[in-house]
């Protein structure tokens, strides 16, 4: 049994949002065979109850919390650097000092996100990085529609990030990334033996809920979009659906209701709630309850990278999903068997309307989606692959 330190770029609790879910469950899966401690860097205030909840699962939780302006100051110092701003944002001397004093206690440093990789780079202790998404790819795509200061930051930052992600992939003992598409982008199609795909899983309790029926729909169907709503790709997807897709669906279903579910809605997202039939919920205690209310779950993503947890979670609940090609990446699903893929506003509206017209198709897609997630995308299955790589690194 080894002792692992998992470096986290935010407190991975409560389990809201894809980043927190992945940090928590990968650490918990390693804890099945090893002693795992968490080192957390986050903005103040940090909820003590969340720290206590993590302490019930892991051997120790070491929290370094700073006010937001300290992170921004770090970023300013990185403007003239060749390293990405992401790596400067989370760099604090107190964390480095703690690692210098405690590194010898650990057999493995496990870095979540590129934001924490500088802490392990060059150290003697074996180190693994979970890049999660190719953030460089996300930033490159976002640069096409960015406004304000981001028009100048994204074109520079995505290139810095890709160089950095590639360097980490080659210099760390091993690195993970969430989809083949992201892996291809980082490596430029080359074969890196130290970079492998590790998909997300779904929370066990989602599958435990089982399949539910589709008897609700009459003339007022419910469509649901789930995500952290101050994140640009989610903001864009929600606005795109409301402005470009929903009016066409409303032509067939005038009473259609569109729920935008997720924490921290930006001003842009909140304004969507003024539109007919659109509800912006903000934070909800149990977002999966809203997914289960959906006649169709929609994920009209045009930006971003990586595997979309929102798609997996809807599928785990047996909900029929209409998604873009981008949002289905990383999911080994067959189009029109497990989900529906549509690109372009007209096609997306048409496919959604056709599903609303057919209870049988919604039931068929939902059942097949549930079976796929149950067989391939549970954290226990992902964890086995993770532990096999960790074991090789520790040999």
What best-fitting shape do the alpha-carbon axes yield?
Answer: globular
What is the residue-mean pLDDT, rounded to a whole number? Answer: 92
Terminal CA distance reads 12 Å
Computed CA radius of gyration, to the nearest angstrom: 21 Å
User: How much of the residues is beta strand, in percent?
Assistant: 15-25%
Strand arrangement in the largest pleated sheet: 3-2-1-4-5-6-7
User: Which bin fits the share of residues in helices?
Assistant: 40-55%
Number of helices: 17
Order of helices and strands: EHEHEHHHEHEHHEHEHEHEHEHEHEEHHH
Class per helix and strand makeup: alpha/beta
Tell me the total number of β-strands: 13
Largest sheet: 7 strands, parallel
Please identify the oligomeric state: single chain
Show unreliable segments. none
Task: Please describe what this structure looks like.
This protein is an alpha/beta fold and 395 residues long. It is built from 17 helices and 13 strands. The strands form 2 sheets. The chain has a 7-stranded parallel beta sheet with strand order 3-2-1-4-5-6-7, sandwiched between helices. It has a 6-stranded parallel beta sheet with strand order 10-9-8-11-12-13, with helices on both faces. Strand 9 (257-261), helix 12 and strand 10 form a beta-alpha-beta unit. Helix 1 (18-30) crosses helix 17 and helix 11 packs across helix 15 (345-357).
């Amino acid at each position: 049994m080894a002792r692992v330190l998992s470096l986290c770029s935010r407190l991975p609790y409560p389990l809201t949002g894809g980043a927190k879910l992945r940090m928590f469950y990968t650490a918990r899966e390693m804890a099945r065979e090893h002693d795992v401690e968490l080192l957390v860097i986050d903005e103040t205030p940090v909820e003590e109850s969340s720290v206590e909840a993590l302490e019930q699962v892991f051997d120790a939780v070491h929290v370094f919390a700073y006010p937001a302006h300290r992170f921004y100051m770090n970023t300013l110092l990185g403007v003239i650097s060749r390293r990405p701003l992401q790596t400067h944002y989370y760099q604090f001397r107190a964390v480095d000092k703690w690692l210098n004093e405690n590194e010898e206690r650990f057999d493995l440093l496990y870095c979540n996100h590129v934001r924490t990789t500088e802490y392990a780079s060059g150290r003697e202790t074996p180190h693994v990085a979970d890049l999660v998404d190719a953030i460089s790819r996300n930033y490159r795509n976002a640069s096409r529609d960015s406004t304000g200061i981001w028009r100048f930051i994204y074109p520079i930052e995505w290139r810095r990030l890709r160089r950095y992600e590639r360097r980490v992939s080659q210099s760390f003992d091993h690195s993970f990334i969430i989809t083949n598409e992201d892996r291809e982008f980082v490596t430029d199609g080359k074969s890196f033996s130290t970079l492998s795909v590790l998909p997300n899983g779904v929370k066990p309790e989602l599958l435990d809920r089982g399949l539910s029926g589709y008897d609700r729909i009459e003339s007022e169907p419910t469509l649901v979009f789930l995500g952290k709503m101050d994140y640009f790709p989610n903001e864009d997807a929600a606005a795109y659906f409301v402005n470009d897709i929903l009016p066409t669906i409303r032509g067939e279903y005038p009473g259609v209701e569109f729920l935008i579910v997720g924490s921290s809605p930006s001003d842009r997202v909140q304004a969507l709630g003024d539109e007919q039939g659109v509800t912006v919920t903000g934070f909800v205690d149990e977002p999966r309850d809203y997914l289960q209310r959906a006649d169709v779950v929609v994920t009209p993503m045009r930006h971003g990278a990586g595997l979309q947890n929102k798609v997996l979670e809807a599928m785990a609940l047996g909900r029929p999903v209409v998604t873009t090609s981008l949002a289905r990446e990383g999911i080994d699903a067959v189009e029109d068997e497990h989900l529906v893929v549509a690109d372009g506003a007209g096609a997306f509206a048409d496919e959604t309307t056709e599903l609303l017209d057919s209870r049988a198709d919604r039931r068929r897609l939902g059942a097949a989606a549930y079976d796929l997630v149950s067989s391939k995308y549970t954290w226990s299955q992902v964890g086995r692959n993770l532990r096999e790589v960790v074991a090789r690194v520790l040999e």
